[in-house]
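Fold it.
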Amino acid sequence: MINFKKITSLSLIIFFSTFSILFAEIIKEIQVKGNDRVSDKSIEMFSNINIGDDINNDDLNQILKDVYGSNFFKNVKVTFENNILIILVEENSLVENVIINGPKSKTLIKELEKRLKVKSRTSYNEILFLEDKKNITEALKQKGYFFSKVDVTIEKLSDNKINLIYNVEIGDKAKIKKISFIGDKIFKDRKLRSIIVSEEYKFWKFISGKKFLNQNLIDLDERLLKNFYLNRGFYNVKINSSFAKMLNETEFELIYNIVPNNRFFFNKISLDLPIDFDQSNFDDLNKLFKKLNGKKYSLNVIENILEKIDKVILDEEYKTLETMVDENILENKIDLTFSIAEGKKYIVERINIYGNNITQENVIRNQLLIDEGDEFNAILASKSINNIQALNIFQSVDSKIIDEENDRKIIDITIEEKATGEIMAGAGVGTDGSTLSFAVKENNYLGRGIKLVSELTVSEETIKGQFNVNNPNFRNSDKSINLNIQSLETDKLTDSGYKTNKTGFGFGTNFEYQDDVFIGLGQDSYYEKIETNSSASARQKSQAGNYWDTFINLNLNYDKRNQKFRPTDGFRSSYSVNLPIISENNSLTNAYVFTYYDELYQDNVTKFSFFAKAANSLTNDNIKLSERIYLPSGRLRGFVNGGVGPKDGNDFIGGNYASSINIQTSIPQLLPNIQNMDVSMFFDAGNVWGVDYDSSLDDTNKIRSSIGLGIDWFTLIGPLSVSFSHPISKVDSDKTESFKFNLGTTF
């Protein structure tokens, strides 16, 4: 029975194959009819058929598809008679011009034109044309124009030509009236609102574009929220929906539905290495795995582990190795196995870069860690794409790796450029005074990846203007070069008896010396004018005059925080020193700051910080009045800013030394139902001491301390910080302040 079925099937295959061959005929002539602009040869090329080829019904259908697929023709008919192949076509109209009417912004019109598939001097295609109309509507929505209307007129011209005219009414931009977070979101609205980019519309926000409904920003918000939860242990977090609810004709409520699900913890973490690997290269990682056991799941931790594995692989020049992560879930615990396997060897034949109309190609290629002719390495290829994205001058960066013959690969990198200029304005008011700021930024000057910043800040005591130029990768050295020109006026005539005006410039470089260790080297030169008033002492008045100073500065920064924005774990240690080169009093200033973060219990963040700063003359002269040290107000709450330390008469004059210790811990159990408010408890201790020009004034060398509560409240205007403090230890001459607030907003 089985043999009978096999014989029958084989017979049918042979029959139909023979039938197809018998009915195939040879093409002796190809005739093309109905064409005007498109040549006969081009149409023959589209058909993928030649004289002398065998042809059957299947081939005729394929020819029809191939000629249609060229998008040059409205109708196509293919016939075959008497060994003559006849291709009858009706050409699409030629689009002479594509015109977009309505928007006043030329930049917007250019952006819409980029979305079009049917362009000037191309053949009209109705399917692509309908897609273009939809693309314009979607592009306007991404810009915030949710109420736009797009009408199209086809203007017929002679010689089968047409003009496509898009009449666009963009309407008003859709405003975000309210941002809401629903679901069992765990965290308060205030914290979640600080994570996303979109913001609520306020009448005074006349500069910010983030107050308008924008699909690109909404997509970014979703990614930011998901990463936030992933880094806090919520492995199965779902941002189920983000949608806009229409409140009136121009305003929406933006709603994010968050389902965090259970919190997960790391369990067993292991490495699966090839037999010939030196296990000792991974000793540090194995130690880290033991420390992570029982810690909450974090996407940042996994990425950090992968980076460490990649570093070992690259250091040992294992170019073709690949790392994979296997996850095994047991209730709310996750076992991780990092497997390292050797892949096939390939050579990078070519790297193509597309889409950079403004940005110079060398800016992009400088970020590549792999080059043409190199052995292909998936780690370096991935890091190269990350480096390009980190420039923050592109809307999107996509890569495609194409396998070629002879074990070669081609890497195609496609970028989409975006507007890189920014205008920012802000204001703040508080017990320490009022502040206004305005800045203009350009992150890709002349397409060279150079950053320019022009900024003006005005407060009750200071006026500061500066212009900064930064090249983040100078001559492909992985070192940034910066130039800064600034002018600073500080008026302390009321509190300290002097006023200073400092103008000058500085330049320097910053680079990563080792993992998480950053070094900054630079030089600053300033011309300074110091004035004193009648309340100043004779020794203070003796320092009035003009000065020219040049310093060499060094900055060391060791950063082990789990993230730079709102860290919850790790520490940062930084040291800076200014060494005098040209100076009348040769002042040496150095400072050290250490900050440690930890979660003592769920949803708590505790921060410990130590600060120390000293300024002294290397030649035993008196340091200038403007070089004297004051404790920043945030490091000694409960006291007026600049209201502690040595006094000369009625003036607080600062000291040669200052130090402080700060401990702050959040209290998530307090006011848990108030979504826009967080409460913390703090303890501050600090001191300012040392008067080099008169040691008799330094009779207040005593540690000041305070304890209190801090409230961070996201108000309708902007973030409000309030502290209620009670001094524990102080000096009679100190100025205390039990209540302090600061309210800020942007425009």
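The first strand starts at residue 25 and ends at 26.
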